[in-house]
Design brief:
The chain has about 120 residues and is of the alpha+beta class. Helix content is about 25%, strand content about 35%. The chain has helices at about 55-65, 70-75, 80-95; strands at about 1-15, 30-40, 70, 100-105, 115. Strand 4 (about 100-105) and strand 5 (about 115) form a beta hairpin. The chain binds ligand LPXRUNBV and zinc ion. The site of zinc ion (ZN) has 5 residues, from strand 2. This is 6-carboxy-5,6,7,8-tetrahydropterin synthase. GO terms for molecular function: 6-carboxytetrahydropterin synthase activity; metal ion binding. It is an enzyme of class 4 (lyase). It holds the Pfam family PTPS.
Length: about 120
């Protein structure tokens, strides 16, 4: 199996709900998010690609247009945890990119949430 990945960066703010009153993440705060999208295929195309990285530009355009410099609570219909964001991005792009099998969302250099199919 061949696997490729590409990172998409965006800056956004959020406040998490359904947390204890004294949890710091209830307060509005921001992250420099990194969403890494993973694509796999058992075969390569005639060029030797799983997918041309250039063909992933629609993901960058979406991230830039809809997520970058937004307050995520205002634009997403769910509690904007990293886990929920990973599943959200997977659901948006898997119909277009059948090779997509995993999305990682990192809020800080030390954390990662992953959604992946079997
Ligand atoms: N499982 C999850 N836990 C937390 C999430 C999340 O999306 N999924 N999100 C947050 C906060 O939004 C934020 O990411 C804080 O994370 P944390 O690692 O606590 O950040 P700090 O920089 O404060 O951590 P240090 O350990 O002080 O470096 C919280 N949890
Ligand atoms: Zn946060």
């Amino acid at each position: 199996m061949y696997i490729i990945s590409k990172e998409f960066h965006f800056s956004a703010s959020h406040a998490l709900s359904r947390l204890p009153d004294d949890h710091q993440c209830r307060r509005v705060h921001g992250h420099n998010y990194v969403a890494t999208m993973f694509f796999r295929s058992a075969t390569l195309n005639e060029t030797g690609f799983v997918i041309d990285y250039l063909d992933l530009d629609s993901i960058k355009q979406y991230v830039d247009a809809y997520l970058d410099h937004q307050h995520l609570n205002d634009i997403l219909p769910f509690n904007p945890t990293a886990e929920n964001l990973a599943k959200y991005l997977f659901d948006i792009f898997q119909p277009k990119f059948k090779e997509l099998f995993k999305v990682e969302v990192s809020e800080t250099p030390k954390t990662k949430a992953i959604y992946e199919i079997d």
